[in-house]
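User: Sequence in, structure out. Go.
Assistant: Echoing your sequence, followed by the structure tokens.
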Amino acid sequence: MKILNLYAGIGGNRKLWGDEHEITAVEYDEEIAGIYKHFFPNDNVIIADAHEFILDNHRDFDFIWSSPPCPTHSRFNHLLQNIPEKYEKKYPEMELYQEIIYLKHFFKGHWVIENVISYYDPLIEPQKSNNHYFWANFTIPIFEKDNRGIRGNKNNLKYKQERNGFFVEDFPISSMKKRKILNNCVLPELGKAILDEVSGQRIQEASKS
């Protein structure tokens, strides 16, 4: 398949996809894009605005995964908004729902959009797996929240690296940014299960045609 991996981060969802597909990753942050390229040197990594990239390029791909920015939708953000003297108030960023509507109506392949559990009732009903929301045109495999038996402080960098299977301590970025990119990782096993579901559906569709 030709796969478009949007808001790619360091590639938590992509970690177990292997190299049999042609994968294009779009990431806006140049430092994070460099870390992704380190882990996945065979992928085509583009430093660009993923939201705009969809409009111009979606017809070139068979499967699109998008993980738009989630902080303004999160339950943690809801807590911060209740402390106005310390935190700036922010509207939820609506790129999430723009992409859901656009891909649903204009993209002919398989697609999935991932985001956090929101502090409000979702405007478009999602599927839920591994403490994430998913919007897709296929059924998302169900994974329970899983720390895979790893013990330790969940805010500790070592814990986060072991949980996600990415070791980033040697990259020249701040500890805060390292924790952030690890927090944003989708469980790699779930990412693989979703890709396997898409592959299986494509095989079924091909056999009927």
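User: And one key feature?
Assistant: The helical segments are 30-39, 50-57, 75-81, 95-106, 157-164, 175-183, 188-208.
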